[in-house]
Protein backbone atom coordinates (compact mmCIF):
# COMPACT_ATOMS: atom_id res chain seq x y z
CA UNK A 1 0.00 0.00 0.00
CA UNK A 2 1.05 3.64 -0.40
CA UNK A 3 3.01 5.46 2.25
CA UNK A 4 2.34 8.49 4.41
CA UNK A 5 3.69 9.74 7.74
CA UNK A 6 4.91 8.15 10.93
CA UNK A 7 3.03 7.81 14.19
CA UNK A 8 3.98 6.34 17.53
CA UNK A 9 2.50 3.08 18.69
CA UNK A 10 -0.54 2.65 20.88
CA UNK A 11 -0.65 0.44 23.92
CA UNK A 12 -3.14 -2.33 23.31
CA UNK A 13 -6.01 -2.45 25.77
CA UNK A 14 -8.50 -5.12 26.66
CA UNK A 15 -12.02 -4.53 27.93
CA UNK A 16 -11.73 -7.68 30.05
CA UNK A 17 -9.56 -8.16 33.15
CA UNK A 18 -6.20 -9.39 31.87
CA UNK A 19 -2.86 -10.48 33.26
CA UNK A 20 0.40 -9.33 31.71
CA UNK A 21 1.65 -11.97 29.29
CA UNK A 22 5.28 -11.55 30.37
CA UNK A 23 5.73 -12.15 34.09
CA UNK A 24 7.01 -9.06 35.82
CA UNK A 25 6.75 -6.92 32.68
CA UNK A 26 4.70 -3.73 33.11
CA UNK A 27 2.36 -2.54 30.35
CA UNK A 28 4.22 -0.57 27.71
CA UNK A 29 3.10 3.05 27.71
CA UNK A 30 3.25 4.56 24.23
CA UNK A 31 1.67 7.83 23.13
CA UNK A 32 -1.19 7.50 20.62
CA UNK A 33 -0.14 7.91 16.99
CA UNK A 34 -1.71 7.14 13.64
CA UNK A 35 -5.12 5.51 13.68
CA UNK A 36 -5.97 2.24 11.97
CA UNK A 37 -6.56 2.80 8.27
CA UNK A 38 -5.13 6.32 8.27
CA UNK A 39 -2.99 5.86 5.15
CA UNK A 40 -5.99 4.49 3.24
CA UNK A 41 -8.18 7.35 4.47
CA UNK A 42 -5.57 9.89 3.30
CA UNK A 43 -5.53 8.34 -0.18
CA UNK A 44 -9.34 8.19 -0.30
CA UNK A 45 -9.65 11.87 0.61
CA UNK A 46 -6.95 12.81 -1.89
CA UNK A 47 -8.90 11.11 -4.68
CA UNK A 48 -12.24 12.46 -3.50
CA UNK A 49 -11.05 16.10 -3.49
CA UNK A 50 -11.17 16.22 -7.30
CA UNK A 51 -14.68 14.77 -7.51
CA UNK A 52 -17.42 17.33 -8.39
CA UNK A 53 -19.95 18.04 -5.67
CA UNK A 54 -23.32 16.36 -6.09
CA UNK A 55 -26.23 18.60 -6.95
CA UNK A 56 -29.18 18.92 -4.59
CA UNK A 57 -31.25 16.76 -6.95
CA UNK A 58 -28.54 14.09 -7.05
CA UNK A 59 -28.36 14.04 -3.25
CA UNK A 60 -32.17 13.84 -3.03
CA UNK A 61 -32.26 10.89 -5.44
CA UNK A 62 -29.45 9.11 -3.60
CA UNK A 63 -26.67 9.42 -6.18
CA UNK A 64 -23.53 7.72 -4.87
CA UNK A 65 -21.04 10.21 -3.38
CA UNK A 66 -18.10 7.91 -4.28
CA UNK A 67 -17.15 6.25 -7.54
CA UNK A 68 -16.28 2.54 -7.64
CA UNK A 69 -12.57 3.10 -7.01
CA UNK A 70 -13.19 5.45 -4.08
CA UNK A 71 -15.67 2.99 -2.63
CA UNK A 72 -13.01 0.27 -2.71
CA UNK A 73 -10.69 2.57 -0.71
CA UNK A 74 -13.47 3.25 1.79
CA UNK A 75 -14.06 -0.48 2.28
CA UNK A 76 -10.32 -1.07 2.66
CA UNK A 77 -10.20 1.57 5.40
CA UNK A 78 -13.19 -0.03 7.13
CA UNK A 79 -11.40 -3.39 7.07
CA UNK A 80 -8.28 -1.90 8.64
CA UNK A 81 -10.40 -0.24 11.32
CA UNK A 82 -12.12 -3.54 12.13
CA UNK A 83 -8.74 -5.23 12.53
CA UNK A 84 -7.43 -2.25 14.49
CA UNK A 85 -10.35 -2.56 16.90
CA UNK A 86 -9.55 -6.25 17.42
CA UNK A 87 -5.94 -5.36 18.20
CA UNK A 88 -6.98 -2.88 20.90
CA UNK A 89 -8.29 -5.89 22.85
CA UNK A 90 -4.89 -7.57 23.15
CA UNK A 91 -3.63 -8.05 26.72
CA UNK A 92 -1.05 -5.89 28.45
CA UNK A 93 2.48 -6.41 27.19
CA UNK A 94 1.58 -5.84 23.52
CA UNK A 95 2.20 -2.72 21.46
CA UNK A 96 0.22 -1.92 18.33
CA UNK A 97 1.12 0.46 15.47
CA UNK A 98 -0.93 1.46 12.45
CA UNK A 99 -0.16 2.72 8.91
CA UNK A 100 3.62 2.77 9.27
CA UNK A 101 5.33 3.81 6.01
CA UNK A 102 8.24 1.53 5.17
CA UNK A 103 11.44 3.42 4.48
CA UNK A 104 12.85 3.28 0.92
CA UNK A 105 9.59 1.84 -0.45
CA UNK A 106 6.15 3.05 -1.51
CA UNK A 107 4.54 0.57 0.91
CA UNK A 108 3.09 0.90 4.37
CA UNK A 109 2.28 -1.82 6.87
CA UNK A 110 -1.38 -1.78 7.89
CA UNK A 111 -0.68 -2.92 11.46
CA UNK A 112 2.48 -3.85 13.33
CA UNK A 113 2.16 -5.79 16.59
CA UNK A 114 5.02 -6.29 19.04
CA UNK A 115 4.54 -8.77 21.86
CA UNK A 116 6.25 -11.52 23.82
CA UNK A 117 5.61 -13.88 20.90
CA UNK A 118 7.44 -11.73 18.37
CA UNK A 119 6.73 -9.04 15.80
CA UNK A 120 3.85 -9.38 13.35
CA UNK A 121 3.15 -7.33 10.24
CA UNK A 122 -0.56 -7.52 9.48
CA UNK A 123 -2.28 -6.81 6.18
CA UNK A 124 -6.05 -6.36 6.48
CA UNK A 125 -8.07 -7.34 3.43
CA UNK A 126 -11.74 -6.69 2.86
CA UNK A 127 -13.70 -9.34 1.01
CA UNK A 128 -16.87 -9.72 3.01
CA UNK A 129 -19.18 -12.68 2.46
CA UNK A 130 -17.00 -14.53 -0.02
CA UNK A 131 -15.34 -17.93 -0.07
CA UNK A 132 -11.65 -17.50 -0.81
CA UNK A 133 -9.87 -20.19 -2.78
CA UNK A 134 -6.14 -19.78 -3.25
CA UNK A 135 -2.70 -21.20 -3.82
CA UNK A 136 0.57 -20.58 -1.96
CA UNK A 137 1.41 -17.86 -4.52
CA UNK A 138 -1.73 -15.76 -4.79
CA UNK A 139 -5.29 -15.33 -3.57
CA UNK A 140 -7.85 -14.94 -6.34
CA UNK A 141 -10.56 -12.34 -5.88
CA UNK A 142 -13.17 -12.67 -8.61
CA UNK A 143 -11.25 -13.09 -11.86
CA UNK A 144 -8.04 -11.58 -10.56
CA UNK A 145 -5.14 -13.27 -8.76
CA UNK A 146 -4.11 -10.83 -6.05
CA UNK A 147 -0.40 -10.80 -5.00
CA UNK A 148 -1.25 -10.48 -1.31
CA UNK A 149 1.15 -13.23 -0.27
CA UNK A 150 4.06 -11.75 -2.21
CA UNK A 151 3.40 -8.27 -0.80
CA UNK A 152 3.14 -9.61 2.76
CA UNK A 153 6.51 -11.37 2.45
CA UNK A 154 8.09 -8.23 0.99
CA UNK A 155 6.81 -5.99 3.79
CA UNK A 156 7.94 -8.37 6.54
CA UNK A 157 11.40 -8.66 4.98
CA UNK A 158 11.74 -4.88 4.78
CA UNK A 159 10.69 -4.36 8.39
CA UNK A 160 12.96 -7.19 9.55
CA UNK A 161 15.87 -5.37 7.90
CA UNK A 162 14.88 -2.06 9.55
CA UNK A 163 14.81 -3.64 13.00
CA UNK A 164 17.77 -5.99 12.58
CA UNK A 165 20.04 -3.88 14.77
CA UNK A 166 18.07 -4.68 17.93
CA UNK A 167 16.47 -8.03 17.08
CA UNK A 168 17.89 -11.42 18.01
CA UNK A 169 19.82 -12.97 15.14
CA UNK A 170 17.19 -15.61 14.33
CA UNK A 171 14.16 -13.32 14.75
CA UNK A 172 12.07 -12.18 11.80
CA UNK A 173 8.90 -10.15 11.42
CA UNK A 174 6.10 -12.64 10.79
CA UNK A 175 3.66 -11.63 8.02
CA UNK A 176 -0.08 -12.15 8.44
CA UNK A 177 -2.94 -11.59 6.04
CA UNK A 178 -6.18 -11.02 7.93
CA UNK A 179 -9.35 -11.47 5.89
CA UNK A 180 -12.28 -9.60 7.37
CA UNK A 181 -15.16 -12.03 7.93
CA UNK A 182 -14.95 -14.21 4.81
CA UNK A 183 -17.27 -17.22 4.62
CA UNK A 184 -14.38 -19.66 4.27
CA UNK A 185 -10.67 -19.64 3.51
CA UNK A 186 -9.73 -22.60 1.33
CA UNK A 187 -6.08 -22.67 0.29
CA UNK A 188 -4.61 -25.48 -1.80
CA UNK A 189 -1.85 -25.77 0.78
CA UNK A 190 -0.35 -23.62 3.49
CA UNK A 191 1.48 -20.57 2.07
CA UNK A 192 5.20 -20.39 2.71
CA UNK A 193 6.09 -17.99 5.53
CA UNK A 194 2.70 -16.21 5.53
CA UNK A 195 -0.21 -16.89 7.87
CA UNK A 196 -3.66 -16.34 6.36
CA UNK A 197 -6.39 -16.05 9.00
CA UNK A 198 -9.89 -14.66 9.37
CA UNK A 199 -10.47 -11.66 11.61
CA UNK A 200 -12.50 -13.40 14.37
CA UNK A 201 -9.53 -15.66 15.20
CA UNK A 202 -6.80 -13.01 15.09
CA UNK A 203 -6.64 -12.03 18.76
CA UNK A 204 -6.60 -15.61 20.00
CA UNK A 205 -3.92 -16.54 17.46
CA UNK A 206 -1.61 -13.71 18.53
CA UNK A 207 -1.98 -14.39 22.24
CA UNK A 208 -1.25 -18.10 21.70
CA UNK A 209 2.20 -17.47 20.17
CA UNK A 210 5.01 -18.89 22.35
CA UNK A 211 7.30 -16.35 23.93
CA UNK A 212 10.33 -15.51 21.79
CA UNK A 213 11.37 -12.12 23.24
CA UNK A 214 12.68 -11.27 26.67
CA UNK A 215 11.28 -8.07 28.20
CA UNK A 216 14.58 -6.33 27.40
CA UNK A 217 14.52 -7.42 23.75
CA UNK A 218 10.91 -6.35 23.38
CA UNK A 219 11.64 -2.95 24.92
CA UNK A 220 14.56 -2.43 22.51
CA UNK A 221 12.37 -3.29 19.52
CA UNK A 222 9.57 -0.93 20.55
CA UNK A 223 12.09 1.86 21.18
CA UNK A 224 13.38 1.52 17.62
CA UNK A 225 9.87 1.39 16.18
CA UNK A 226 9.00 4.56 18.09
CA UNK A 227 11.94 6.41 16.53
CA UNK A 228 10.72 8.55 13.57
CA UNK A 229 14.01 7.97 11.72
CA UNK A 230 13.12 4.27 11.38
CA UNK A 231 10.29 5.08 8.98
CA UNK A 232 9.77 7.14 5.88
CA UNK A 233 7.89 10.34 6.69
CA UNK A 234 5.69 12.65 4.62
CA UNK A 235 3.51 15.63 5.35
CA UNK A 236 0.04 14.58 6.51
CA UNK A 237 -2.99 16.08 4.81
CA UNK A 238 -4.74 16.85 8.09
CA UNK A 239 -4.46 16.07 11.76
CA UNK A 240 -5.63 12.50 12.54
CA UNK A 241 -8.79 13.73 14.29
CA UNK A 242 -9.81 15.79 11.24
CA UNK A 243 -9.03 12.94 8.87
CA UNK A 244 -11.16 10.56 10.91
CA UNK A 245 -14.01 13.09 11.06
CA UNK A 246 -13.98 13.56 7.28
CA UNK A 247 -13.92 9.80 6.75
CA UNK A 248 -16.87 9.37 9.10
CA UNK A 249 -18.77 12.05 7.17
CA UNK A 250 -18.11 10.17 3.91
CA UNK A 251 -19.35 6.94 5.48
CA UNK A 252 -22.53 8.71 6.54
CA UNK A 253 -23.04 10.14 3.04
CA UNK A 254 -22.60 6.69 1.48
CA UNK A 255 -25.08 5.17 3.93
CA UNK A 256 -27.61 7.99 3.42
CA UNK A 257 -27.37 7.70 -0.38
CA UNK A 258 -27.86 3.94 -0.19
CA UNK A 259 -30.88 4.42 2.07
CA UNK A 260 -32.43 6.96 -0.33
CA UNK A 261 -31.90 4.65 -3.32
CA UNK A 262 -33.53 1.80 -1.41
CA UNK A 263 -36.46 4.03 -0.47
CA UNK A 264 -37.01 5.17 -4.06
CA UNK A 265 -36.74 1.57 -5.30
CA UNK A 266 -39.43 0.46 -2.84
CA UNK A 267 -41.64 3.44 -3.71
CA UNK A 268 -41.24 2.72 -7.43
CA UNK A 269 -42.18 -0.92 -6.87
CA UNK A 270 -45.26 0.09 -4.84
CA UNK A 271 -46.26 2.67 -7.46
CA UNK A 272 -45.83 0.12 -10.23
CA UNK A 273 -47.94 -2.43 -8.38
CA UNK A 274 -50.64 0.18 -7.69
CA UNK A 275 -50.69 1.29 -11.31
CA UNK A 276 -50.89 -2.28 -12.55
CA UNK A 277 -53.77 -2.96 -10.18
CA UNK A 278 -55.57 0.18 -11.35
CA UNK A 279 -55.18 -0.81 -15.00
CA UNK A 280 -56.20 -4.43 -14.59
CA UNK A 281 -59.01 -3.94 -12.05
CA UNK A 282 -61.72 -2.95 -14.65
CA UNK A 283 -60.76 -5.95 -16.75
CA UNK A 284 -61.06 -8.27 -13.76
CA UNK A 285 -64.47 -6.79 -12.81
CA UNK A 286 -65.72 -7.15 -16.39
CA UNK A 287 -64.55 -10.76 -16.54
CA UNK A 288 -66.30 -11.58 -13.26
CA UNK A 289 -69.53 -9.93 -14.43
CA UNK A 290 -69.38 -11.80 -17.72
CA UNK A 291 -68.93 -15.15 -15.98
CA UNK A 292 -71.75 -14.35 -13.53
CA UNK A 293 -74.15 -13.55 -16.35
CA UNK A 294 -73.69 -16.86 -18.12
SS field, number of helical segments: 7
Q: What is the H/E order?
A: EHHHEEEEEEHEEEHHH
Helix content, binned percent: 40-55%
Strand content: 15-25%
**Low-confidence blocks of residues:** 1-32, 128-137
* Domains (count): 1
Shape: elongated
The termini sit apart by 78 Å
Q: How large, in whole angstroms, is the Cα Rg? A: 25 Å
Major sheet strand order? 1-2-3-4-8-10
Largest sheet: 6 strands, mixed
Mean pLDDT: 75
Q: Find the structural class using helix and strand composition.
A: alpha/beta
Oligomer: single chain
Give the tally of β-strands.
10
Q: Can you describe what's shown?
A:
- The chain has 294 residues and is α/β, with parallel strands linked by helices.
- It has one domain.
- 43% of the residues lie in helices and 17% in strands.
- The protein contains seven helices and ten strands.
- The protein has a six-stranded mixed β-sheet.
- The protein is elongated.
- Mean pLDDT is 75; it is low at 1-32 and 128-137.
Write the layout of secondary structure elements.
Blueprint: E1 10-11, H1 38-48, H2 56-61, H3 68-87, E2 95-101, E3 108-115, E4 118-125, E5 131-134, E6 139-141, E7 144-146, H4 148-163, E8 173-179, E9 184-187, E10 195-198, H5 202-207, H6 215-226, H7 240-293
Parallel strand pairs: 4-8, 5-9, 8-10
Antiparallel strand pairs: 1-2, 2-3, 3-4, 6-7
